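It is worth pausing here to work through a concrete case rather than discussing structure prediction in the abstract. The textbook approach is simple: state the sequence, then state the predicted structure, then interpret. We follow exactly that order.
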Amino acid sequence: MPVAKVLGIETEYGIAGGPDLDPIVASSIIVNAYAQEGHTRINWDFEGETPEMDARGLANLTAFAPVVETHLANTVLTNGARLYVDHAHPEYSSPECRTPLEATLYDVAGEEVMRRALRVANQSLDVGQAITLYKNNSDGKGNSYGTHENYLVARDVEFLHIVRAMVPHFVSRQIVIGAGKVAAETESGIDADPAFQLSQRAEFFEEVVGLETTLKRPIVNTRDEPHADAERFRRLHVIIGDANMSQVATFVKLGSTALLLAVLEEHGPSCFPASPRQPVGAVRSFALDPTLRHAVLCEDDQQRTAWDFQDQLWHLAEGYVASHGGEAVAGPDEVALILAQWREMLDGVRDDPVSVSDRVDWVAKLRIIDGYRERYQLSQGDARLRAIDLQYHDLRPERSLAQRVGLRELHPIEQVREAIHNPPETTRAYFRGQCVERYADQIVAANWDSVVFDLGEGPLRRVPMLDPLRGTRALTADLLETCPTADDLLEALNR
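Step two, the predicted structure:
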């Protein structure tokens, strides 16, 4: 029986400018600018962070497990999200959401948080030190940064079954949710000399399975850090995927993956299509082929294109919904919307790309690139085309090309502005966000599964939240309303 697919997105933003062109300093300025405007000053609690834990049960597999950087700017927002500096990038980690549509909303809210932080930060800097933010995945110099998805999965699903089932999806889904990219920047990518790739991240992946996120990037990440009751839950940490400017692409990315995980929990991995014999090669070769005709040899000796994989997976998800419903992912209307948009985008990229240029980022971007190149008779290696690529992801509304190409919106700006300040109501993010809003002066720190209070005397008090589906508005709103202080809240919880 599938567990509810609580989910969210972590986005590391590209950054340029700032004092001495130092990205760590510039990222800290962005995070602190938002915090110092009064939005929040609550620190992140690193208690229980175990990025070195491997789902395969093997200790000390690698020297490249993610480093927990406790010294960099880090804060918790009233909408339940986390805003912090990750290596050399400002990162917004959305609050836990109950459905793909809600998770899309809070990802878009993250864009607006970053825009507001950018405006405040640049007001304090000289013009020559101005910072620019991009919602993209590489800097054009061989450095990539991530857009990571997280999905709640039942602990009794074997990790190797997740690998077996999800690799076909992860290597092929870029044909509908890829953000597109001019040229290449890794050794293998440059050797292929592409004019355009479907995905910004594809050329950076080197392994099928692994713990790393910054070096030797794997298609399936093995981090076993559920941020919940480890006896009941896994958190599938997905690092392969692009930052989407298209809200519909984000929605389909989350919705399709959540549905397939529900299929896996219900039926096991045997119903999924066979994986490519060389999954890393498949990721890269599919990205290099905007015609979608390239096929790879699979473990069952069949040849499949990326489109073939996605078509099989769509039918698998559609059959599951028809027979079991999709309640683990969302309500009937939203599940129907996931399947409809996924199908339209899948057929569109093959048969009539222009028809989905309002939803598929790589198609929208390629149309801009081709139009500009033809107008000015440019070669495929012209630096101006790379500049256009970057400008597509610019967060400044007056500069962003994504803002001008007519991408469909799922959430009106009024709803996005509400989500900047208010948490989702159907997960524990509600309790976290409300505590940050109501009791900020008595909270020392918070993280995904606890809030730490300091009442001014005695030891610090930690309130655990090990079930992502508790702490909801339905379960805690009345309690919070009757507790004007943190002392009252903790006393009530003790009772």
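Step three, interpretation. The chain has a mean pLDDT of 94. The longest helix spans residues 100-123.
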